[in-house]
Amino acid sequence: MTTAADRDAADPLAHFRDRFVPADIVAYLDGNSLGRPLRVTRDNLVRFVDDVWGERLIRAWDEGWMQTPTELGDTIGRVTLGAAPGQTTVGDSTTVMLYKLVRAALEARPGRTEIVLDTQNFPTDRYVLEGIAAERGATLRWIDADPGSGVTADQVAAVVGPGTAVVVLSHIAYRSGYLADVPAITEVVHAAGGLVVWDVCHSVGVVPLQLDAWNVDLAVGCTYKYLNGGPGAPAFAYVAAALHGTARQPIQGWMGAADPFAMGPAYHPAAGIRQFVSGTPPVVGMLPMRDMLALVDEAGIDAIRAKSTALTEFVLDFADEHLVGKGVRIATPRDAERRGGHVTLDHPSFRDLVQQLWKRGVIPDFRPPDGMRIGLSPLSTSFTEVERALRIVADALP
């Protein structure tokens, strides 16, 4: 039997673990919530304060800062999204970006008043859509998704129709880790005349995406998970070039104007993806993700996906052998083609156990009602680390 140590010895990405700031813990199994910082980021933040912000001061806006949302967006698009330049921008929180995209999609389909969403989507997605529906007089059409899997193309086909303006779904279900069939679902929505907004928060940086090839309309994602941008790092928005003439975002700020420094009496949107910028770009907040994007580019997203699949398979195998007999239920798809970068294990005692694990330096997270989510960031996580943590979980269960 191949041991965790054997897997680490054969892991072509093992050397990347040394690039991360070490932590005095037993195991970090929550990289899908907050990625670990890179050593180089610490150095680059100091350099930025001393050499750029400190020396160039406000001149730095003319020397590059103004273009950071779209330039960094292009990097995210190239390295992780399968997106051509000019379709991705960075800024705001995921919640605000989602609001912008859904409102833009709704207005781009005049005469259609239905928003389709699912019962198992992340709370922010559901809450934002409830607010937009109330604001715009739209109707919510719910898909009752299986919490152990996710939304299928057939389920979407059953609810979309001539009234559908926009469908909002997650590429990877935040609880179960189910990986949705983006091309098939997108095709179904397009056949009904609607648009799709994909939430790629749990897939960007760990699962290869091909937004252009999949004919995706709009997508939103955060950068503090697998892109290691740090707590509160700004989100990104992808808007397909075909929609740039019809999708107009609702938060009209001066940085998204055609000429920000004209200080004109009326708003005129910038051309292309720049119009989805609203306020002053969070320049400092963009710095850490630059470093991680460089690392993802160096390692290669396909190699990252291969290790992610191996790590999740390792967790499933361990659970079958050591945890299922103790009443643990696997809530994540076993098919690697339908599984993202994390595994959720269910047990009635996990709410209390996760708190105990944190005190012992083993850090997964908990998702109600009884799920322990094992988040595996491939470039910073070893098989040995995962095995060590899971053995502690096994020992703690009766």
From TrEMBL:
Please identify the protein, giving its name as recorded: Kynureninase
Q: How does it assemble?
A: Homodimer.
- Native species: Cryptosporangium japonicum
Question: What biological function has been recorded for the protein in this entry?
Answer: Catalyzes the cleavage of L-kynurenine (L-Kyn) and L-3-hydroxykynurenine (L-3OHKyn) into anthranilic acid (AA) and 3-hydroxyanthranilic acid (3-OHAA), respectively.
Pfam families for the chain: KYNU_C (PF22580)
Q: Which GO terms describe its molecular function?
A: transaminase activity
E.C. designation(s): 3.7.1.3
Would the keyword Transcription regulation turn up in this protein's UniProt record? no
Q: Which domain of life is it from?
A: Bacteria
Reaction(s) catalysed by this chain, per the record, are: L-kynurenine + H2O = anthranilate + L-alanine + H(+); 3-hydroxy-L-kynurenine + H2O = 3-hydroxyanthranilate + L-alanine + H(+)
Query: Species lineage, top-down?
Result: Bacteria, Bacillati, Actinomycetota, Actinomycetes, Cryptosporangiales
Q: Which UniProt keywords apply?
A: Aminotransferase, Hydrolase, Pyridine nucleotide biosynthesis, Pyridoxal phosphate, Transferase
- Necessary cofactors: pyridoxal 5'-phosphate
- Pathway stated in the Swiss-Prot or TrEMBL entry: Amino-acid degradation; L-kynurenine degradation; L-alanine and anthranilate from L-kynurenine: step 1/1; Cofactor biosynthesis; NAD(+) biosynthesis; quinolinate from L-kynurenine: step 2/3
Q: State the family named in the UniProt similarity comment for this chain.
A: Belongs to the kynureninase family.
